[in-house]
Each structure stands twice: as structure tokens, then as C-alpha cells.
Design a protein that fits this description.
It contains 10 helices and 16 strands. It is an alpha/beta fold and 392 residues long. It has a domain of 214 residues: FAD/NAD(P)-binding domain. The protein is globular.
Length: 392
Amino acid sequence: MARVAVVGAGLAGLCSALALADFGHDVTVLESGPAPGGQLAYGPQPFTLPAVLRDLFRKTGRPLERELDVVPVDPAARWVFADGSEVTVPNASPSGARRALDQAFGAGAGAQWDAVVAHGDRSWRELRPLVLGHAGAKPAPPGGTLRDVAASLREPRLRAVLESYATRYGADPATAPAALTVLPYLEQTFGVWTADLGRLVDVLAGRAAERGAAFRYDEPVVGPALDGKRVVGVTLTSGETADADAVVWTAPPGRLADDRRGVFSRVRARTARPEPPADMADVDVDVDVIVIPRAGRPAAPTAPSATPSVRFPAGSGPATITYDTPEGRVRRVAPDAAHGAAAGRVTAIFRRPANVTRVRGLYLAGAGAHPGPGIPLVAQSAAIVADHIGRA
């Protein structure tokens, strides 16, 4: 049995704590805030690949669907353009998406988008072993940029939609990898889903506690405590050192000293950007969430729609993602810090630091680590770390 300190009680921290406690380790979660959840408390967060969460629940107790409702988001999205045109994109329906695009933009538009999805299919086959943390998996060689793929689309509004998959991750479409086409592919192939995220937090925290994990709230962590190149615990802001044989760091990697991040520190030094707070860095959502009341109506805490409205401005500016409510809109402006910092000018989703660091016993999970942001990828980062630490 190893003593494991998990820094942060967002999604990555909760998934890590549950998996490691289920493996029989002595797990302590240190959270700077008063409660678990991190960014899961902020508005609707539709996601793909629910199988990642299903796998964790299946391995640690009752199946996911017996704990909370995971339901498809339909329609998957609304694309709203500056010229007044709109497209309602059905969920997980290639034929439905093709019809919607042909109706909105003219015959042949759906076939253009099908080519994007087919590109994403090929890219996913190459990337899947790397994303899932398979031993020996290596990044695929560069295959051009996302703008290269967009340039093949005759419909300019489709080019804007495709390039938004880069800008929402804080990247430049001119330098972001073409493999970002995996994102629309995953949405269209595996569907877009939603769940009661408050309930998800309660279940994960409760199940981890049942398996012996301890939670310490209002405990900000300065960083890992080291003995040479080996982690021996974490240092709290109080000056106390909480001893540990392994540390799972789910806050932004930029908060670690350079010598704990290896090569990533050199990349990071060239592209330093502000990081979100440690307890709000785990999942794919902007922390700038506001309600915009409609004229004559006061703002009220009505649950917003799970369907995002992606609003494209005139010109080449980044899209704005909103979630409509009867009173107004819950707005998230893409990009940037919500997904962590990109390494160089290439999108962060393929250039995040590895889950296993050069410091023995120090592991990285969360949106700032491999494989990237979003509920399924954050949960997958925790699964990769748990598998590396192994059973007690």
C-alpha cells in the first residue's frame, strides 16, 4: 500500500482518488476550496466518449447509469452566423447533419462536411492508442494544419466552423494540427452527452470515501516536496508537509517548478500565459460564465439548455459559445485559459506534458496534462495515472 496525495478535488482528482483507493492505496485528497467539484460546478458541459466514465464506474461499483442519468444532447449544437443563417446539428446522425447542411448552405455542403469527418476518422485511428495511454504509443507524424483541411471546403461558413475547433482550444488554425478533425468526428460518431454534474461529483467523492480516501478541504498546496529526484509528499501553505509516496498533481502543470516538469518547462517558458486557479483547472469550460438577461427580464437561476449555440462573428474572430436560458444566455467566450496553455503555437490538446514525470512518484492528471481537456479526456488522464501507480 502506498500513501498517495491527490492535489485537487476536481474531476481528475476525484477519478484518481476513486481508482487508487479502489486499488487499495492510502489516498488523501487535498483541495484548496471548501468542497469538491472544481469546474464541474460551472454550467452545462456536454461531452463525448461517455465510455471512459462508464469504465471507471464499472470497475469500482455500480454502473454509471444506475447512479445518474447520462442522456444525449439533441440537437448537438446550433451554429449561428453573422449573416443570420443558422444550422441545427442533430446528435450522432451523419445523414441528419448532411441534410441540415444541404438545406442551410445548398446541395453538396453536407458532402463537404462528411469529408472532414472522414479525415477525423483516419486521424482517430492513429491517435487513439496515444490518447488512451497504450504502452509504446507514439504521436503520428504531422499531417498538415487544420487550415489546410479547411481550405478544401468550398463553403466559407463550414471553414469557419472547422477552424473554431482550434480557436476554442487557444490555438491558431494556421498552425494547429489537421488531426483536430477528430473532434467533430467524435461528436458525430459517438454522440454528445450530458449528465447532472453535481450528482456526478457527489457519487465520485462518496464512492472514493467509501473505499477509504480521506478529503481535506481548504488546504492549498504550494507544491510537491522532494528529496532529490524523488517525491516525498506535498508542502501546504501552512508550512506543513503531508508525507506521501506518490503525488497526483491535477492543478495546472505551470504551477510546478521547472525542474519538476522536464522538457515541458522549456516549451512553457516561450509561451507563458495566465493559468486558471488550481481548483478550476480540470475540465473543458471557461471560468468566465455570466448570465446576460434579456430585455425586461431579470436573471434567474434557470438551468440552461445543454445544447451549445456556437456564434460566429463577421470576419475571422473566435466563435462565442453560449448556453441559452429563458432569462438570457450563459456565455463562454472561446478561447483560451479554460483549456490550459498551448505549447508553442500548436494546440494544447496534442502537446500537453506526460502523465509520468521525471520526478519519481510525481504524476500529472487533469486538463493540463495528457491527453487534454474535456470530461472524457480528463477522466482518462486519471485512469492512465492510476494504471501507472498500479494496485497496492
